[in-house]
Amino acid sequence: MKQYLLLFIFLILSGSGINAQEDNKTIIFLSLDEVVGIAKSENLSLKSKILDYDAQNLEVWRSVSNFLPNFSYQGIATNNFELPVFVFMGQRFVVGTKYTFQHGLDLTLPLFTGGMRWFNINVQKSLKKSLKEELEGKEEETVLQSLQAYYGIILANSFYKTASEAAKAAEANLEQVRKFYDAGTATELDLQRAKAQYASTLPKLERAKSEKKLSAQRLKFLLNLSFEDSLVVTDSLSVKEFLDELYNVSLEQLKELSLNHRSDIKSLIHRLDAVEEGEKIALGKFLPTIALSASVMHQAPLETASVRWNDYIRSKSLTLSMSWPIFEGGRKIIDYQQAKIRSEQMKILFEQADDKRILDVEESYAALLEAVKNLESLKEAKLQAEESLRLSNLLYSQGMSTQLDVLNAQLFHTSSKTEYFQGIFNYNVSQLNLLYSIGLLDKIWN
What we know:
Layout: H1 2-24, E1 27-30, H2 32-42, H3 44-65, E2 70-79, E3 85-88, E4 91-94, E5 99-112, H4 116-183, H5 188-223, E6 230-233, H6 251-261, H7 263-284, E7 289-302, E8 313-323, H8 331-397, H9 403-437
Parallel strand pairs: 1-6
Antiparallel strand pairs: 2-5, 3-4, 5-7, 7-8
């Protein structure tokens, strides 16, 4: 009885835990616009890039602060264990006191640093502009990946529905052939073919089921959603027109648009400006540094550690200094040569990125043309497959065709339907890829 009681309590607690887990699940309804909004606000990679931009904004303020004076306070308490002793004409003279207390305020203002402070401000501003373009590019990349995953869910759902329909059709066909076989109007070969056809649909159905689940997990990862949440997609797999007025634009015009709108290209232009300003900073090191400093010191030399405010002696000073390193082992020359090398590297990187920009546009444009042509032919093939399946079932039921004709029609119908769904997916995604390649994916949400 004690064992049965423990088992009963365990089952109750287990059921409560399962219900609690189910209660923690959230059902999220997603449309295309909602995917775009969540991707822009919740994607972790995009949040990290935003923090990079915020940090660079602080670097701009840091570069401006170099023009402000440095103001500091210094307090010193000294216990001189041994004072210097001078002997003059047989007499010993002790210099200093046992205790020294000192307080002071120092102000230092660099007046001229070879222009390095101005150039550094330009560098940091250029880097900030570059990071802003990178942030916009990261935003477009994140939205593109999220939309691809979103349409991947819709495609996976369509594949699963098609696989389920194919399995049900194969099962219904098997039942029909079995009845004909029992009635003596179908052969053993027909029955074995129907069984094989049904068995072949089950692995495809299981694969489609797994892909349906994985496609949802991919989108949750991109949108920073809990893997335990349930997604409900409100859109269906239908043809979308994202290009609008860009649909009839020529390839050459698209290339020109990409030059003006690609975030990575604009980011590299700003980085090139920053590197060229770095050359000026390296040259500024050859010039002297002029600084102005002022200080107010209060000093109290005493023989005892008991110090009062009226024991201090005040002193003031104002200093104008110039520092001009004439020779430092050639390090400044090496720094300048390295700055020039970095400029050349950035120019090469920009040229390479510009070539890739042209290639991306051409590839995306070719993929779109291919998707358009394929979608038309796949739609026609799907209609023909539906009619072929209808006729083959009708003729077989009337004894005017063979079981092999029905099986072939079912295979053709399933494959054509799957290919048609894939064609819609490719057409929609190819438009998104083309917009991304020319830097105008943001027209979807702007």
